[in-house]
Amino acid sequence: MEELHNRKSGCAPTRVSPASRHLLTFPFKPLRVLVIARDRHAVSQYIKPFQNAGCRVAVVSTIDAAETDLPQNHGCRYYVIGNDEQAAPAFSNDRQVSATFSNLIASWRDIDVVVMLDNWPDMTALLRAHAAARPYPNDWGFPILSVSQNRVTRHDIMADITISSPVPDISDRPESTVLTFLALKSSAPISSITF
Length: 195
Known about the structure:
Elements: H1 2-5, E1 32-36, H2 44-52, E2 56-61, E3 77-80, H3 89-108, E4 113-116, H4 121-133, E5 144-148, E6 151-155, H5 179-183, E7 192-194
Parallel strand pairs: 1-2, 1-4, 2-3, 4-5
Antiparallel strand pairs: 5-6, 6-7
């Protein structure tokens, strides 16, 4: 009672930094984000915004992580899907895509957001089948963010998604700056952002 009377508490008061007081912030739960990038070397710009927000990120690509601009300790799941020299390329690739997707779902149980940098029909079909097989809808809405040159579009999982002009494989693209904003649940009414 004496501490309460003297306005002393067991903890220090929370202070807001003058620099962060003027920033725009959004509520963001730790999402599970899948980035689909086929032959891309510049992928860190699409991963870092989600990792900085505390999200878990997985990348599915056809090239090894060492050939990308990701640091050695990139902190995300990285799956490489390549052709097996022993088997027919189409059969092997389909099997690898399916096994990779099964491994990811077994680890995460679900995916909240998909960032699609390249067209990959096998992966899109697996995503649709996964969404249809769930006994309950994803509470985040399961948006797919397709990144094309000078435009990022937010799609529903069941929409027909085709990237007509893929974004160039270079660093510092402006499209990567709006991904976390479009991934927000409250951004569902926004269909696309054009640069």
